[in-house]
Design goal:
The chain is mainly alpha-helical and 326 residues long. The chain contains 13 helices and no strands. The longest helix is centred in the last third of the chain and has 30 residues. The N terminus is likely disordered.
Length: 326
């Protein structure tokens, strides 16, 4: 009896593998890009970003292989996730992971970066169209289903120009940026309506509030790229709004400090990485004591966060606490 149960355990774990695991790659690759930016800005002789890139690409490959196996063996479970009112928003983490890897690998191999960017951009557009169509023609969504993860399909579009412009595709980059920016604004209003007038998101999903930082922070970076390194008023507006949301969330630290570890904790990582990168741009273009202090502080917090997340995620996997029924 025990033997039979042990034989089926791995298959059960695979069946319950969540699509949100791809958010790990978003956090790691975002951190990789942050370190690449700082290494260049401060002329570091050591390059931790290289190891982070290898780790990010390796983990993406492992998760992608595992999720493909799940799709081939437990297709109904994947369909169930896509039809879930909350989990559907995490499917674009697959394409966003490719886009982030394209940005990170651009300085090493433009050819590989182009391939990753092309696949990631096309997949991102398909997910955006599918998910928005599902939101429009629905019979099950309620106010309580709205949560910051709804930004994930949008953030991926804003991210496209960061590699798209250097690769020589400005008009395609403007297309994606326009979609992301114009869809971000109404979604932000929907979420604030939920926060102000309806019950708060469940405690387990509280870390996803940090996703609110990502659209303005990534928007600042993308706008900077679209304007070929010129920091103008729009870039400043996007940056400072992202900075305000960051301060607002850190002001609520007590609500986050009492949470037990779970996979949604990875929602802290990519937005903080995006804010670190945007702050490094402000340091380079504006200078001053404030950004000279803020940028290394954010990088230090991001580094500590990634170590904590990797440790807790590894421990949870070894204990069999991940890829289980919820």
């Amino acid at each position: 009896m025990n033997s039979a149960a042990s034989q089926h355990a791995p298959h059960s774990r695979l069946a319950h593998m969540p699509i949100s695991l791809f958010a790990i790659v978003m956090g790691l690759s975002g951190t990789t890009i942050a370190f690449e930016r700082i290494e260049h800005l401060w002329s570091w002789t050591i390059h931790p970003s290289t190891l982070l890139l290898i780790l990010s690409a390796g983990i993406y490959g492992l998760i992608a292989f595992a999720y493909l196996s799940k799709f081939l063996r437990y297709r109904s479970e994947v369909i169930g996730e896509f039809n879930h009112p909350i989990r559907i928003s995490f499917f674009p983490t697959m394409s966003i992971g490719l886009l982030l890897l394209a940005i990170a690998i651009l300085q090493y191999s433009p050819t590989i970066a182009l391939a990753l960017w092309a696949v990631g951009s096309i997949t991102q557009l398909l997910f955006t169209l599918l998910i928005l169509s599902t939101w429009i023609h629905h019979e099950r969504y309620q106010v309580q289903h709205s949560n910051p993860a709804w930004f994930i399909p949008i953030v991926g579009n804003i991210l496209v120009p960061v590699a798209g412009v250097p690769l020589g595709f400005p008009e395609i980059s403007w297309f994606y940026f326009s979609v992301g920016l114009m869809m971000w604004t109404p979604l932000l209003a929907v979420l604030f309506n939920r926060f102000f007038f309806h019950p708060m998101v469940p405690a387990k999903l509280l870390p996803t509030l940090f996703i609110l930082i990502a659209p303005p922070a990534v928007g600042c970076i993308a706008w900077f790229k679209l304007h070929h390194g010129v920091l103008d008023d729009v870039a400043r507006i996007l940056y400072y709004f992202g900075l305000f949301i960051t301060l607002l969330l850190f002001f609520q630290w007590r609500h986050f400090a009492r949470l037990s570890f779970a996979l949604p904790w990875w929602a802290y990582s990519f937005p903080l990485a995006a804010m670190t990168i945007a702050s490094s741009i402000m340091l380079e273009k504006v200078g001053g004591t404030f950004f000279a202090i803020l940028t290394p502080v954010l990088l230090g917090l991001l580094s500590i966060l990634i170590v904590v997340l990797l440790f807790n995620t590894s421990r949870a996997m070894l204990r069999g606490e991940i890829c289980v029924p919820e």
